[in-house]
From TrEMBL:
It comes from the Bacteria. The chain crosses the membrane at residues 12-32. Residues 251-260, 269-279 have a biased composition (Polar residues). PROSITE patterns: PROKAR_LIPOPROTEIN. Keywords: Membrane, Transmembrane, Transmembrane helix. It comes from Acinetobacter bouvetii DSM 14964 = CIP 107468. Gene3D superfamilies: Sporulation related repeat. This is SPOR domain-containing protein.
Length: 279
């Protein structure tokens, strides 16, 4: 323990001397270097390309927004209308443009289309009903239910007097000109979707069947039958007979051929008789 403690003291003195030496050399280096001020050096562009890409050399575009007329901004109020989202009575821009000089009866307006659909399903006759979606920059989204289309206001007032539609007492139908809906309608109606899917009729004409030549069919049939008969006569069958002794060794092999002409001895092929010496 005494030796170990003595060695630790020696190590501590060595570290202390080493740290003092490092501090001394640092002070000497700082005294030699001095405290000179840093000088900012501006680098000059060496090539013409470097001059062109300097920020202060880039000129601003004088006609900012020059492509505004070529690339129109998106109209956020427009939307793609699917046929499955609306009833068949839904009308759009085409209906309003065609009937803008006509009059109609506005029954009521709702903000939820489901209410309007529910009302239509309760009607036994829906031929005179139609509805629009009204939406604009300063106009909340609404669905307006219309009844009929009339040429002038007098006809519309007469239809209003004879109106036979069950409505709550709080709802008061009114005569309106369809033109007033034009700024707030930007949809594709159900009638336009049906018109886009054109149906085409296919007219079939009778065509004469080709005449069958019975003579050619009979000749082909006879030719096939004759060829089958020749093949049957020339067909031969080869039979191989292998004889073995009691130990299983092959003694001899006998082959024979038979054909359709075997019934006629003169046409039958020659046969070789092999006798078994052990039998």
């Amino acid at each position: 323990m005494a030796l170990r403690t003595h060695w630790q003291q020696i190590q501590n003195y060595i570290w202390l001397v080493f740290g003092g030496a490092c501090l001394f050399f640092a002070l000497v280096f700082w005294a030699i270097s001095g405290t000179k001020e840093l000088v900012e050096v501006e680098k000059k562009a060496e090539t013409e390309v470097e001059l062109q890409i300097q920020p202060e050399k880039v000129s601003a575009m004088n006609h900012l927004g020059a492509l505004f007329d070529e690339v129109k901004p998106l109209d956020m109020s427009a939307r793609v209308v699917s046929a499955a989202q609306h009833e068949a009575e839904f009308r759009g821009t085409k209906f309003v443009n065609e009937q803008k000089k006509s009059y109609t009866l506005e029954l009521f307006r709702v903000s939820d289309e489901a209410i309007l659909k529910k009302f239509l399903k309760k009607q036994s006759n829906r031929s005179n009903f139609s509805y629009l979606r009204l939406f604009g920059e300063n106009h909340a989204e609404q669905y307006v239910l219309l009844y009929g289309v009339y040429r002038n206001s007098d006809d519309a007032k007469a239809a209003l007097a004879d109106l036979n539609v069950a409505l709550p007492a709080s709802i008061k139908p009114a005569v309106v000109e369809i033109q007033q809906y034009q700024p707030f309608v930007n949809d594709l109606g159900s009638d336009e979707l049906k018109a886009s899917g054109k149906l085409y009729a296919v007219n079939l004409k009778t065509a004469p069947l080709p005449q069958v030549d019975e003579a050619q069919i009979a000749a082909k049939r006879a030719e096939v039958q004759a060829r089958q008969a020749v093949e049957a006569k020339t067909a031969t069958t080869t039979t191989t007979v292998t004889r073995r002794d009691a130990d299983g060794n092959v003694v001899n092999v006998q082959q024979s051929q038979s054909s359709a002409d075997a019934a006629h001895p003169k046409n039958a092929p020659a046969q070789t008789e092999v006798t078994d010496p052990f039998n």
